[in-house]
Amino acid sequence: MYYIGVDLGGTKIAVGIVSVYGKLLYKYTVKTEADKGVETVISNIIKCIESAVAEYGISISNVASIGIGSPGVIDSETGTVIAAFNFKDMINVCLAGEIQKRINRPVAVSNDANCAALGEVVAGAAKGYSDVVMITLGTGVGGGIVINGELYEGGRSRGVELGHIVVNHGGNLCSCGRRGCWETYASASALIKRTMEEAAAHPDSLLAKMVAEAETVNGKTVFNAAEQGCPVAKAVTDEYISYVSEGLIDLTNVFRPQIILIGGGISNEGERLIGPIKKYVAENSFGAGIIEVPHIARATLGNDAGIIGAAMFAKRTLK
Amino acid sequence: MYYIGVDLGGTKIAVGIVSVYGKLLYKYTVKTEADKGVETVISNIIKCIESAVAEYGISISNVASIGIGSPGVIDSETGTVIAAFNFKDMINVCLAGEIQKRINRPVAVSNDANCAALGEVVAGAAKGYSDVVMITLGTGVGGGIVINGELYEGGRSRGVELGHIVVNHGGNLCSCGRRGCWETYASASALIKRTMEEAAAHPDSLLAKMVAEAETVNGKTVFNAAEQGCPVAKAVTDEYISYVSEGLIDLTNVFRPQIILIGGGISNEGERLIGPIKKYVAENSFGAGIIEVPHIARATLGNDAGIIGAAMFAKRTLK
Measured between CA atoms, how close is B126 to chain A, in angstroms? Predict the structure, then answer.
C-alpha cells in the first residue's frame, strides 16, 4: 500500500507517493492557479494526484489514503478549510469531501505547517523525538507542534498559529489584524524589510552597496554583509536573531520540547543563524541553567516535509 | 476511599480531604515556615495531613493517594521539586519520596497552577469542558492547561510557564531573568506598581487621593477610581486590561481552548475586568469573526482549586 501526501501551496501543488514508513518515493508538481478560484484548485489537485500515480506506475487502488496539507485554518475533523486567506474564495471548503468524491480514496486535511512538523518527526531532523516544535521562517512564520509523538493541532484543530503570538505589544501591524505578532519581526519578509530600511538609512554602508548590487535581496544579503564586517548589517541580524529567539523562548517555556526545528528559506543561513539563537535561548529561557533547554536544529526535509507529513497525517487519522 | 490534596503555598499549607468526585469535604491549614528550610516544610506538610485526617475522623488507610501542588518547576514523573525559588533550599527535593516515606500512601506532585486548572475542570467553572486554559493573576502570573480533559504539563512536566511568555521584547525585567514577560505587566503586583506610579505622577488626580486614603493599595483601588470617573485610573486599567488580553490572545491562538478561566485576587473585579477582556480578545484573536473565540470566565473555586486539583492529579496519575 502507498500513501499520498499533497502540499497545497499558493503557487504550486506538490503530490508525493509515500511509503508506509514515510519515505518519499515519487513527486509530481503542477501550478496551483489559486487566482482562478476553488474549483480550478481542486481539479488541479486531482490532476496532480492522477499524474503522480500514473507516472509512478501504480493504480489509485494501491493508495490507502490521501493527506492534504493546506495553508489556513483547517477543521481536520471534517477535512474542511475554514479560511485560507491567500486563496480566492477558499472559505469553508470541504476539501476532503471534494477530493474523495472524485477520487474514491479516504482523504484527510491538516494545516501545512502542522504537516511539515509531523514529516520531520517521521522522516527528518526530529526522528526519534516525541516532543517537537517546528517553525518555518518564510513569507510568514508557520509552526507545528508534536506532543507525545502525535500532532497537536489545538482545540478543534484551530490552534497552533505560532506566528501570531505577540512579541511587541502595539508593534508592527500583522496581516491577521493584530499588532506586534512574532511573524512581523521573525519572518523572511520582515528581515528583508529591515534590510532595505537600514540600507536606505545608511547609504554609505557595505550593506547598502550589497543591496544595490544584488539581483534579488533576500535573507542571505544581510547575513553576508554582516559576515563581511558591516556594522549596520550586524545590527540588523542581531535584532532579527533576538526576535526569532524571543518567540522560541515562549515556545520553550510553554511546551519545553526536546527539540526545536527551524525551516524555511532563512534556515539556509545555518550556523550563523542557529548558533546565536541557541545561545540566546539557553540564556533567557525560564530556569536557565537548571532546566534543560531544547536542542535547536535545522529542518532537513525542506518542502518534502509537508508532503510526507500530510501522507502520514492521513495514515494516522483515517484508521 | 478518600483523596488528599495539598496546596503548598509560600505562607500556608492547606490540606483537603477530597471525595472520589472531586468534592472538598474538609480542609485543614498550617503555616508553611518556608524560611526554616525544607525539613521543616516537609514535617509541616505531614503534620497538616495527619491533623486533617484525625479531625475529619478517618484513618490514613482510608486515603487512596496524596497529591501535592507545589510552586516551582516540578518533575511530576518522579514527584521532585526541581526548583521552587521562593522556598529556602527547595532544589531537587523529591517531595513525593519524602512524604511517602513518612506516611505510607502513594504521593504525586505537580505544579500548583497546573493543579488549580485541573481542580476547576473537575469541580469548578470549567466543569464539562475538555480544553481549558486557566491563569492566575496574583503576585506573579501562573497558568495551567488542560487538553482533552487531561492536564498538560509540557515536556517532562517542565513547561506551561504561562507567565513567562514575552509581551514586550526588551521590556520590564522579570524575576526569571528575561525582559518583557507577561507576568511583569499582567500580575496583580504589576497593576499595583502602575497604580502607585501614576498616582505619584498625577498628585491632583482622584487616583492619588484614593491611594493616599487607602489602608492597603491593591488591584481594587485603581478599578474603583476608574469607575468613579478618574481618567488617570482609567488609563491604568485600560493598559492593564490590554496586557492581560494580549497574553490571553497568544494562548487562544496557540491552544484555542473552549474556555479561559481567570483566577487570583484581581479576578474579584468581575465584569469590569472580564467584560473588556472578552471584547479585546474577540476582536484581536487570529481569524477574528471566523474562528470561535474561547469563553472567558472567572474561576470559582478560589484557593480550593489547587487542593482539589492536586488530589485529582494524584488520583489520575497513580493508577
Answer: 15
Under an 8 A CB cutoff, do A249 and B155 touch? Answer: no
State the burial class of residue A283 (Cβ atoms within 10 Å of its Cβ: 0-12, 13-18, 19+): middle
Q: Enter the C-alpha cell of residue B210.
A: 484614593
Which positions in chain B touch A168 (Cβ < 8 Å)?
168-169
CATH class of B128-298: alpha beta
Q: To the nearest whole angstrom, how far is the Cα of A33 from the nearest Cα of chain B?
A: 24
Chain B nearest-CA residue for A75: B291
Helix, strand, coil: what percent of chain A each, to 5?
Answer: 45, 25, 30
Q: Which pLDDT tens digit goes with each residue over A207-226? A: 999 999 999 999 999 999 99
Overall pTM > 0.90: yes
- Chain A CB contacts of B249 under 8 Å are 166, 178
Distances from the Cα of B311 to the Cα of A107, B65, B262, angstroms: 43, 8, 21
Q: How far is A59 from chain B (nearest CA, A)?
A: 39
- Please, what CATH class does the domain formed by B2-121+303-317 belong to? alpha beta
**Which residue ranges does chain A devote to CATH 3.30.420.40?**
2-121+303-317, 127-298
pLDDT digits (tens, 9 = 90+) for A161-184: 999 999 999 999 999 999 999 999
C-alpha A108/C-alpha A5 separation (Å) is 10
- For A127-298, give the CATH class: alpha beta
Residue carrying the nine cell digits 557595505: A206
Tell me whether residues A158 and B287 touch, CB distance under 8 A: yes
Note the ipTM here: 0.96
